[in-house]
Write a structure and sequence with these properties.
This protein has helices at 16-28, 39-45, 65-75, 90-98, 111-142, 147-157, 162-169, 173-186, 192-201; strands at 8-12, 32-36, 52-57, 81-85, 103-106. By secondary structure, the chain is of the alpha/beta class. Helix 4 (90-98) links the parallel strand 4 (81-85) and strand 5.
């Protein structure tokens, strides 16, 4: 694995000894780790291009871990979070998990429990990155379509036949077939099922 591809585990905890213990554990299994005393330090660092996750203490100075989770969500920064705390309770854990946290671990926790949660979080981030890359790729293909081809795409994806599309846009069926063929080629799809799936990824507003 290239150095740039090694996943990074970010650790935010105001307890220096805890930060170091988690960092040592993470690095012992071949992952990269960076630790911070506050959420602000982490925000100034920014994300990496490799898969990553965040091990976040619930109790932090200035802003709680739960408030920091909300701040990340509001800013559009999507990173899987594992909460750790010595002062957790059921309502707190439920709130964190409902907001998308991967795990909520109460100190002291087993090393393996944290490592398992980290692997789950990294897998979630990999999947999200792959999905985002696919969506961006689809958008790039969509941008190559002409306005008429985009119109035909929407109608095809909605389930209309060529004859119906021709009536809808005021063109001949032969012309629709040409536009449809060009559109399918540019979008790199070979079936209606693939096209509908791609249209969904584009958040396409299909005609009713």
């Amino acid at each position: 694995m290239k150095a740039a591809d090694i996943p990074t585990v970010f650790i935010i905890d105001d307890d220096r000894s805890m930060r170091q213990a988690v960092q040592d554990l993470v690095e012992s299994v071949g992952l990269r780790a960076e630790s911070f005393a506050t959420g602000g330090e982490f925000l100034r660092r920014g994300r990496t291009t490799s898969p990553s996750c965040l091990v976040l203490d619930v109790r932090l100075p200035q802003m709680s871990g739960l408030d920091f989770q909300n701040r990340l969500a509001e800013s559009g920064m999507q990173i899987p979070i594992i909460f750790i705390t010595a002062h957790g309770d059921v309502p707190m854990s439920v709130k964190a998990l409902k907001a998308g946290a991967v795990e909520f671990l109460t100190k002291p926790f087993r090393d393996q429990d944290l490592l398992d949660a980290i692997q789950q979080a990294l897998q979630r981030d990999r999947a999200a990155r792959e999905q985002q890359a696919e969506i961006l790729n689809v958008h790039e293909r969509y941008k190559t379509l002409t306005p008429r081809e985009r119109e035909v795409m929407a109608l095809v994806a909605s389930g209309l036949l060529n004859k119906q599309i021709a009536a809808e846009i005021g063109a001949s069926e032969a012309t629709v077939k040409i536009h449809r063929g060009n559109m399918m080629q540019k979008m790199q799809v070979g079936s209606l099922v693939e096209l509908v799936r791609i249209a969904d990824k584009l958040k396409f507003v299909l005609p009713k």
